[in-house]
Amino acid sequence: MFSFIARYYLPLSKYINTMTYSDILIYMESVDGDRSLWKSKMTEDIKEAKVALLGVGDAGGVSANKIREKLYSLYPTSSFVKTIDIGNLKKGLTDSDTRFALTEISKFFIQENIILILIGGTQDLTYSLYKGYSAVGKVINMLSIDPFFDIGEMDGEITPRSYLSNIIVDKPNYLFNYSHLAYQTYLVEEDAADLMHKLYFDIERVGEVKSKLIQMEPYFRSADCVSADISAVRFADNPGCNNNIPTGLYAEEICQLMHYAGISNRTTSLGIFGYSHEKDVRLQSAFLQAEMIWCFINGVSSRMYDSPFEPRIGITFKRFIVPLENNELIFLKCDQTDRWWIELPYDKARTIPYGPTYFVPCTISDYEEALTNKIPDRWWNSFKKLR
Questions:
Q1: Which of 11, 17, 162, 218 lies at a 20 to 30 A Cα distance from 264?
Q2: Helix (H, G, I), strand (E, B) or coil at 208
Q3: What phi and psi values does residue 70 have, to the nearest 5 degrees?
Q4: 114, 48 in Cβ contact below 8 A?
Q5: Which domain holds residue 359?
Q6: In this structure, is residue 310 part of a structural domain?
Q7: Which of 154, 98, 94 is nearest to 128 (CA)?
Q8: pLDDT tens digits for range 139-152
Q9: What is the Cα–Cα distance from 210 to 217, expressed in whole angstroms?
Q10: What sign results for the dihedral spanned by CA atoms 98, 165, 176, 192?
Q11: From CA 25, how far away is CA 195, in angstroms rounded?
Q12: Are 307 and 298 in contact (CB under 8 A)?
C-alpha cells in the first residue's frame, strides 16, 4: 500500500522541511499475503483506519511479509476495527536515516490518532517510536517485554541492546515512566537492575509475570508505547528470533499480554521486534507474531474507554476509601469493566506537566493488600516519581 521513497534517504533530514506526507508515502500495488479473509476489515483510506501495520527491518521487507502471510490466514472477528497495511519502510543509507524516517511516520500517526504496529525489525527502532511522541511534545509511559535490560553506554550508539539508555538521557526528556516485564535475572547486570529501581521504574521478572499474569494488565493500561522483543518467548515456542533462549514466556502468555495492550485505552503504538526469518524454517515464529497482532487488534476492538480521566457517557465508578495508620488510600472501581485505579494525592499531581497521572491503574489485589494496612508498590512508585 505505502512505502518510503528511497531518493529521500540522502539523508532524509536534508529534505524533510520541504516534504509532505504524500511525498513520503506512496501506493504499493501488492503486499505479500492473501488478504481475502480480511477484505471487509482492511481499508486503503487512511481516514477510515484505526490501526496501521508497517513492516520495518531487512531490505525488501522479507521478515515482515512472512508475518503478514500468517496474519492474513487468520479469521478476523466481526468487531475488528479497520486496519490499513502501509507496506514496508525501505532502509536508508544509514541506520540514522532509517530511524529519522520512522520518527516522522510515528509522528504522523500519533497526530492522526491511528495506532501504529511495527513488525519485522530490531528493538532499537523503539527509539524512533519514542522520538515520534517527543516530536509532538507528548510525555509518555513506555512498556517493554524483554528478557534483557537494553541499557548500554549512556549517549552511546543506538543498538537493540542500548536504545533504552538513549531514551533515558534524551533532552528534553518526554519519558515519565517505564515498565519492564519478563526480564531474566541471569541475563541482566545487577547494576542495571539497581538503576531501574533508583529511577522508580516498574520491573517484573519472568517468573512473576508467569505466576501473576493478570496482575500485569495495569502496566499496559498506563502505557502509550509497547515494545516487545520476541526473545522473551521460550525457544520451544519461538525458534525464529535473534536471541534464542530456552526459558521464557509461553506463546499463550505473550498473546495474553498483547490482549492487555490492545484493550488499553492509552496504548497508541506497538512494536514486535527481534524476528529472524532465516531461523524460522517452519514459520512457527511468524505464525506466533501473527497471533500476537491478532490478539492486539482484537483488544483494540474491545476497548471500553473506562478511564477515570475522561470516562465515556454511561461509565460509572464506585469509590472505596481505605484508612491506614497515618493516611488513607482511595480506590476507584469501574462498574462496567471491574477495572481498578488508585488515586494519588491531588495537590501533588496537579502541579506536574505530565497530564492526568494521578490515577494509577491497579487490580483488586492492590485493594485487598491495602485492607491489610500495606501500601501497594504501584502507589509508592508513582508517588515517588511525582514528588
A1: 162
A2: helix
A3: -75, -35
A4: no
A5: 317-386
A6: no
A7: 98
A8: 999 999 999 998 87
A9: 12
A10: positive
A11: 40
A12: no
As a whole number of angstroms, the distance between CA 315 and CA 308 comes to 9
Instruction: Name which residue leads in pLDDT, 317 or 383.
Output: 317
What pLDDT, in 10s, does the model give residues 4-42?
333 333 333 333 444 444 444 433 444 555 788 999 999
328 within 8 A of 322, measured Cβ to Cβ: yes
Residue owning grid cell 462498574: 335
H/E run at residue 126: helix 126-135
pTM of the model: 0.90
Both 112 and 43 in a single domain?
yes
Residue 311 domain flag: no
CATH code (residue 156): 3.40.800.10
Cα distances (Å, whole numbers) of residue 16 to 8, 19, 116, 383: 8, 5, 21, 41
Same domain for 72 and 102?
A: yes
Asked if 331 and 318 touch (Cβ cutoff 8 Å), the reply is: no
Helical spans, DSSP H, in 199-353: 206-211, 217-221, 251-263, 284-300, 346-349
Counting DSSP H helices and E strands in the chain, the numbers are 13, 14
